[in-house]
Amino acid sequence: MFPYPSGTLHLGHLRVYTISDVLARFKHMQGYHVLHPIGWDAFGLPAENAAIERGVHPEKWTLHNIQAMKAQMMAMGGQWDWDRELRTCDPDFYQHTQRIFLMLHERGLAYQAESMVNYDPVDKTVLANEQVDAKGCSWRSGAKVQKIMLKQWFLKIKEFQEPLLKDLDALAENGSWPERVLAMQRNWLGRSEGTELCFDIQTEHPEAKVKPVEVFTTRADTLFGVQYIALSLNHPIVQEIAKQDEALGAFLQRAPDFPPDSREGYLLPNVTARNPVSTILNGNGVSEPLPVYVAPYVLDDYGSGAVMGVPGHDTRDHAFWRANAPNSTIKVVITAKANHTPRPLIAGAKNDKPMVRKGFVAANINGFAGLPSDQAVEEIVTRLQQSGQPIEKTENWRLRDWLISRQRYWGTPIPIIHCNSCGPVPVPDDDLPVELPNLPDRYFQGKTGNPLAEDVKWKKTLCPKCGSSAERETDTMDTFMDSSWYFFKFLTPKDKSPFGSAEVDHGMPVDLYVGGVEHAILHLLYARFISKFLSTTPLWQQGRLVQGEPFKKLITQGMVHGKTYSDPDTGRFLNPAEVDKTNPSAPVIISSGLAPKVSFEKMSKSKYNGVDPGKTIALYGADVTRAHMLFQAPVSDILEWDETSITGVQRWLARVLEISNAPFFPPHLPKTFKPPNDLDQPLIHILASLRHSGALKPATPTHGKPSPFETAEEELISCLKLPEQKLWLKTQETIASVHKSYSETYSLNTIVSDLMSLTNTIEAAPHSSAVTPHLAWHATAHLLRMLAPIAPAVAEEGWETLHKRTSGPIAENPKHHPLLRHNGGPSIFAWGFPSADPDSIRLLDTTMTCVFQVDGKRKFEVEIWKKPPSVTGETETRRWVLDQVAETERGREWLERGEGKLWKISGVADPHPDYIHVPESWQVVAASGGRILNVVSPRGKAGKAGGLP
């Protein structure tokens, strides 16, 4: 996801762009044509507010920040397609945002309407529902959001609600999108199946013209327990009565100040409702008039702005009823068990809790007693329909049309002209873009609100239809409108249309999208909506084949938390300068000598736990910083940034450079070594070449006898010493594991640990024969190529060193076109990503670890050959394993006849008749296929492998 140009690159930026850069470089090495673009989400309230605080034009502030962040991004070792860089604040970009708006308008998907909207009194602009948090506060300013009536522009996202929900199933396949994001979008779309029905209203207000109240419910089985009706603040009945009821008017004025979880209510005097089930059921109190309340908890846009209150079976209704009718008993009409007559709920009693689950209709409800909840709903609907009541099964959605109007300057102007004669008229395509006026800085000195509404020169224009005087729309678009389609524009950044169809059909959808989970119901939902719309237009004709979904794979990285110090007594957050960290494991508060409380929390200025990635990069280098960041935590987890452990990664990369100097070659050999043209050739080919040159010697002279091996491959493999086999097997297993992590699981942290382990193996590999340096060279070359996406500078340096140390550039024609060039020849990235050799893995996976025990007590473990198929039977298996162990250094230490520890312990001179390596009268037990070898003394429990798992 492209960044907002705040001016400072933080660790969250560094993490997301390191992840995307690593994966882009990997795909480059695989030979793909990779587009790894960059741009700037440059419009929006944050930039305008920051500019107002500084008294400068938002454009100046934004462009300055872009240059600063661009320099910081260059320092982090990333590789982006800067030639495709875009900024949403450029007229060349936002003219296409305006075109897309006009396409929506032409299809009837953009409209203007009077609406009760969320208004931010601090930023002085309207907010979409998605931009108001659960506490009713603005996502940006944190101010308590107000409800006001305004004429606003909306996009009909609800027209796409069915595919937006249904196609989440396709995104769930193979874990393409994180389940958390899918769940958040499903919840926000909020489809619920239920019943729509009407409650008749009786009122003594002669001037009030009231219609039956429509109610949507997902639990029609609880109709018998309705005890009140609650209306939203802007319900037509409420607004009508408020004209005459001063107390109601005062309540409505106070309501915006109520907390989000308020249970305040206003009882409408002389207004009652009638339960529709009273037409089919006598008794049970269903014929009693129901009080009608005005309740802030009822949303205007849920159903018809009315709910039926069932305090016995809904937690929210229960809380409201107890607050407004505290002494009333509460009906219970659904029970957990069939044929049960429940007692009503009494205020203050222990059982005063609603039964919210489905169950069975209570035994005292005539005609419906004992019916399961779902069956009761069907029966209620059928019988009410037969009685002539307006009721039907239907569905309801939480999603509302997208409000895109913003009463601010720094955004894309809405391309509409208002004419007194013609109404709202679209700006002709030839007149696009409608550019923002270049206002002087003084317009932004301490002011809020929308300067466009005050700029008469810009606002006044002519109607495109009739030519009479008219005014431009002064609202600008929500910045999420720009980010809902920007990824298309990267494919044709210079095109005069929003984007070229051929390029888009070839390049879309995006193969991999990386960004934070906080965008799940804002940017990602809007991007899916606009993309689905574009797939119905000539701009993206092939979009229909992918249901208009813009992103194949989504990775949501976790947040970065910083180390935080606080006073154990007061809880006050401490500046790191207040803490003595001489001993990192035992920090001390300088002023008190106490040990501070240490935690990892979301970075903020107030907690003094922010980290400047620029300083870290300057101190340790970009590659060390990148590798450390990836190594610290799985991509999707919270990363607890702890710089005290970064030196471990620094030492590892230094060791990589050391082995790149080919220390495994004897001093006289490096320059005689000629690397092969194909770095990924199978081991068998390498060994055949080494045999031809005389470097590879047979394992055992055959004196002209037929080879004991079944295949030539096995015979070649047998020429390798066991440490050489282990080195090559480790290399190939690492290639397979790392490739899977890069391409399937995206577990980038395990890549770093796998490469560390391979580095250890290369360093520790003993010089077993003339073949060892050749295999170590290949292992090092593979290590550097696997490391390149994560630590490109170290990999390039190591690559150049490795070839200068041996025989220069490998070949004139690298595997791929050199995407990067280096002074020492073709870049390491031109040589592609290593491919695992499955045949060598199969042939080399011939050893196992054997634990040697004496009387069930572990003495040592060694690596031995796996048992061949020709060895059968218990005695032969024991003899085979014992012989293998006896040939090892540790085995000789224990089993060498007369000198070994086992013989000295036994005091016996004669060997066992079946097992010559152990004394007479001792027993041998092999378990787990030879992975455990237990030698049991006459004093031990004969025949039992003590300590076996």
TrEMBL record:
Main location: mitochondrion
Species of the source: Melanomma pulvis-pyrius CBS 109.77
Family statement: Belongs to the class-I aminoacyl-tRNA synthetase family.
Domain Leucyl-tRNA synthetase editing: 186-384
Keyword Nucleotide-binding appears in the UniProt entry: yes
Keywords: Aminoacyl-tRNA synthetase, ATP-binding, Ligase, Nucleotide-binding, Protein biosynthesis
EC number: 6.1.1.4
Domain Methionyl/Valyl/Leucyl/Isoleucyl-tRNA synthetase anticodon-binding: 726-818
Domain of life: Eukaryota
Catalytic activity annotation: tRNA(Leu) + L-leucine + ATP = L-leucyl-tRNA(Leu) + AMP + diphosphate
All copies of domain Aminoacyl-tRNA synthetase class Ia, residue ranges: 3-173, 399-561
SUPFAM superfamilies: Anticodon-binding domain of a subclass of class I aminoacyl-tRNA synthetases, Nucleotidylyl transferase, ValRS/IleRS/LeuRS editing domain
Name of protein: leucine--tRNA ligase
Compartments reported by the entry: Mitochondrion matrix
Coiled coil, from the record: none
CDD domains: LeuRS_core
One example GO MF annotation: ATP binding
PROSITE patterns linked to this entry: AA_TRNA_LIGASE_I
Entries under InterPro entries matching the protein: aa-tRNA-synth_I_CS, aa-tRNA-synth_Ia, Leu-tRNA-ligase, Leu_tRNA-synth_edit, M/V/L/I-tRNA-synth_anticd-bd, Rossmann-like_a/b/a_fold, tRNAsynth_Ia_anticodon-bd, Val/Leu/Ile-tRNA-synth_edit
Top-level EC class as recorded in UniProt: ligase
GO biological process: leucyl-tRNA aminoacylation; mitochondrial translation
